[in-house]
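Lesson 9: reading folded outputs for more than one chain in a single document. The general rule is that every protein is listed as its sequence immediately followed by its structure tokens, and records are never interleaved. Here is the first one.
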Amino acid sequence: MLTRKQHELLRFINDRLAQTGVPPSFDEMKDALDLRSKSGIHRLIMALEERGFIRRLPNRARAIEVIRVPELAPKPQPQRGRFSPSVVEGGLAGRAVQPPAAVARDDRGTIAIPVMGRIAAGTPISAIQDVSHTVTMPADMLVGGEHYALEVRGDSMVEAGILDGDTVVIRRQDVANTGDIIVALIDEEEATLKRLRKRGSSIALEAANPAYETRVLGPDRVKIQGRLVGLVRRY
């Protein structure tokens, strides 16, 4: 599943190829999507390539081949760029998502948390906003609020004990303290899992792996989507 920006870029590239036979430049893509920098386009291109929608041809400038295009456009989201997670009542995976007011412990004292997709612990990728399945957590581990889960891809948080393939449980909130591990949305486009550090008026997104650099961004470029409160690992 593609985010709205990824879908817009894929359609723009495909239409330009159909009209001229030549893919658009990064500047043209940036202007078409009304983005502030070409770095945002680069991240979208990487995401499309990782998902198998395009292929970049080696040793050729501006060489992009569209492999496939989704038949249907994604449904519009009421809050652009934000997750819309809900907590479901404890039970088996596949049950209907319930609003927070309906959440209750089941007979075993557990709650099923909806898994909303994947989150990057490394190069930012998009977090998918569809419930794919659920994970069960002890109810006494979750204190108030709405919770959702994301599958981790990447190794940038390994020294915090978060491994590739783990599932993280997130409490939905838009504020956090320095030192918290958060889901951060960057430039309304890409989501990543990092440790929050506040540096004056700037926000630093810090990896827990020396192979990755800390990203320091202006507060207008980062939106906090939630705070890590639990982790599920399958052995």
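And here is the second record, again sequence then tokens.
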Amino acid sequence: MKNQSVDQTELVEQTCALIEAYEEGTPTLAYLGDALEMSPTHLQRVFKKATGISPREYAETHRLEIFKANLKSGQSVTSSMYDAGFGGSSRLYESSNGKLGMTPASYGKGGKGAEISYAIGNCSLGRVLVAATAHGLCRVCFGSSVKEVEQELAEEFPKAKLRRNEKNMAEILSTVLAVLESFDIKIKSLPFDIRITAFQAKVWSYLRRIPAGMTQTYGEIAAAIGVPKSARAVGKACGSNPIGVIIPCHRAVGATGDLTGYRWGIDRKKALLEIEKSISD
């Protein structure tokens, strides 16, 4: 066995490379440990500490990413499934639970078959739309008008069944509005139904650990999650955040501290940080 104190970042990169190169489903910990000449238990512990997920969870997420890309390129569900390394539909559905949000057959068709309820409220940032499936929150976005926020939702899920339902969505809307007023509110019980990659999971999880009113650069975030050369990828992960405020991507800033790259406008990013600062002072 190799020295167990091998560089953590290097170990994660090597493990990810082995998983991505594996063509027969999900590699076992024993296989990975043998390939890296390391105790499987130690490998599991180091990988999860660095990324927040286990090697198996990373492997499942990686295969789902391949599956989704295949669907979007026009492949059939069956072809996409086997090309991604799933041995059958039962394994696909088991792996996709909580990650795709919608059934695998509908994902590549703009949400066809999915039912999404939404509500719209007013806040200091303008109009806020919250949307959810039966599994949890799938969208929080901001705009200057009802038409603008509804258009963003429709563009993300063009073939889903979208239904404005202020009554059923009242509690979720109230929670999001409360977060905008006091970022100290506990939101751990708020269920999510969002599509997420392993890398996004690391970035978004870290963003939620940055104290309210504070900021970190994309490079600092990249270094903190163990991938110091991925500042640009961190910026992309922030830009793809589907639930604004709940995942506080507004706390990520450019290398010089400039407020760059907020999908709902720099003015809103500045306003959010000012709100947080006033609360934390």
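What the second record shows: The chain has 13 helices and six strands.
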